[in-house]
């Protein structure tokens, strides 16, 4: 097969699988519109329905105490810092109550790697949440957290996941993925899970019948080849388990971090990388737009660059906001963005099942793009 960009794009649009070299070639391409057209074609082949989705959840960071040191993180605090916290249980439950009142069916619950919280503390937390809100899915604990639990509790990974699932954990987020290349991870973090163990948390969770998402934070010290290596590792995991429901990528937000001198990637790089991720991850069914980091207009435009989901209403978000990036959209604004892009908005759950009544109104075609 030819290695030219048009030939590669034709191959993947017709259902072929990209090679590692193909992926790198596409990431180096400056023809953003060609990449977008191809990603949109693949997205429509996978999702020919007239809908594009969103969900309503809340990102609850139960603690900001973390033993890991990540140069890219403006959120974490060390034990004993004046700004360190662990949310009181009534406060956390009230956040969930507010989410349910707004129509939410899920919470995204993540925190730092706290050195003093026991396995029983997490089990009690899950049990109390499910007792009070049995209808709410707990999309909780990133792979770095799960890996940390095994060290604190001195228990095998499978045992930890089995106990969390029994206590009420519903699905796993893909947080802490950054770039799944150990060179990058070692250069940016200390005391945090490496690539193979990050992937293995997902693998074992999938073996237990669970579902999860994968993420990528790019635009810092990684090379384009390492960006594709990240996608390759995700694709290999999905080939093996089939347990990933979605992939979400976003650009590194450098403000207020120890890497503040790294130039922030712009919309061009974001859209190019998202388009390539849709083309490369042929076995991951859903791609989520990142309007939280890109803003509403680029988040909307991402629906033409391979995304079929606008992500969450994001009632609360603390980690990205700590780095100075603060975008908020109301539910009506998310729905309008989807309609303007030519689709009917539908609310979905973590499994990408529709949980609302189908709207009868025809979508409004976007005329400004």
TrEMBL record:
<dbReference type="GO" id="GO:0046992">
    <property type="term" value="F:oxidoreductase activity, acting on X-H and Y-H to form an X-Y bond"/>
</dbReference>
<keyword id="KW-0949">S-adenosyl-L-methionine</keyword>
<keyword id="KW-0411">Iron-sulfur</keyword>
<dbReference type="GO" id="GO:0016765">
    <property type="term" value="F:transferase activity, transferring alkyl or aryl (other than methyl) groups"/>
</dbReference>
<protein>
    <recommendedName>
        <fullName>Cyclic dehypoxanthine futalosine synthase</fullName>
        <ecNumber>1.21.98.1</ecNumber>
    </recommendedName>
</protein>
<dbReference type="GO" id="GO:0005506">
    <property type="term" value="F:iron ion binding"/>
</dbReference>
<dbReference type="Pfam" id="PF04055">
    <property type="entry name" value="Radical_SAM"/>
</dbReference>
<dbReference type="InterPro" id="IPR058240">
    <property type="entry name" value="rSAM_sf"/>
</dbReference>
<feature type="binding site">
    <location>
        <position position="70"/>
    </location>
    <ligand>
        <name>[4Fe-4S] cluster</name>
    </ligand>
</feature>
<comment type="pathway">
    <text>Quinol/quinone metabolism; menaquinone biosynthesis.</text>
</comment>
<keyword id="KW-0004">4Fe-4S</keyword>
<feature type="binding site">
    <location>
        <position position="312"/>
    </location>
    <ligand>
        <name>(3R)-3-methyl-D-ornithine</name>
    </ligand>
</feature>
<dbReference type="InterPro" id="IPR013785">
    <property type="entry name" value="Aldolase_TIM"/>
</dbReference>
<dbReference type="InterPro" id="IPR034405">
    <property type="entry name" value="F420"/>
</dbReference>
<comment type="function">
    <text>Radical SAM enzyme that catalyzes the cyclization of dehypoxanthine futalosine (DHFL) into cyclic dehypoxanthine futalosine (CDHFL), a step in the biosynthesis of menaquinone (MK, vitamin K2).</text>
</comment>
<dbReference type="GO" id="GO:0051539">
    <property type="term" value="F:4 iron, 4 sulfur cluster binding"/>
</dbReference>
<dbReference type="GO" id="GO:0009234">
    <property type="term" value="P:menaquinone biosynthetic process"/>
</dbReference>
<feature type="binding site">
    <location>
        <position position="72"/>
    </location>
    <ligand>
        <name>S-adenosyl-L-methionine</name>
    </ligand>
</feature>
<dbReference type="InterPro" id="IPR045567">
    <property type="entry name" value="CofH/MnqC-like_C"/>
</dbReference>
<dbReference type="InterPro" id="IPR020050">
    <property type="entry name" value="FO_synthase_su2"/>
</dbReference>
<dbReference type="InterPro" id="IPR007197">
    <property type="entry name" value="rSAM"/>
</dbReference>
<feature type="binding site">
    <location>
        <position position="73"/>
    </location>
    <ligand>
        <name>[4Fe-4S] cluster</name>
    </ligand>
</feature>
<feature type="binding site">
    <location>
        <position position="290"/>
    </location>
    <ligand>
        <name>(3R)-3-methyl-D-ornithine</name>
    </ligand>
</feature>
<feature type="binding site">
    <location>
        <position position="178"/>
    </location>
    <ligand>
        <name>S-adenosyl-L-methionine</name>
    </ligand>
</feature>
<feature type="domain" description="Radical SAM core">
    <location>
        <begin position="52"/>
        <end position="282"/>
    </location>
</feature>
<keyword id="KW-0408">Iron</keyword>
<feature type="binding site">
    <location>
        <position position="142"/>
    </location>
    <ligand>
        <name>(3R)-3-methyl-D-ornithine</name>
    </ligand>
</feature>
<keyword id="KW-0474">Menaquinone biosynthesis</keyword>
<keyword id="KW-0479">Metal-binding</keyword>
<dbReference type="InterPro" id="IPR022431">
    <property type="entry name" value="Cyclic_DHFL_synthase_mqnC"/>
</dbReference>
<comment type="similarity">
    <text>Belongs to the radical SAM superfamily. MqnC family.</text>
</comment>
<keyword id="KW-0560">Oxidoreductase</keyword>
<dbReference type="Pfam" id="PF19288">
    <property type="entry name" value="CofH_C"/>
</dbReference>
<feature type="binding site">
    <location>
        <position position="66"/>
    </location>
    <ligand>
        <name>[4Fe-4S] cluster</name>
    </ligand>
</feature>
<dbReference type="GO" id="GO:0044689">
    <property type="term" value="F:7,8-didemethyl-8-hydroxy-5-deazariboflavin synthase activity"/>
</dbReference>
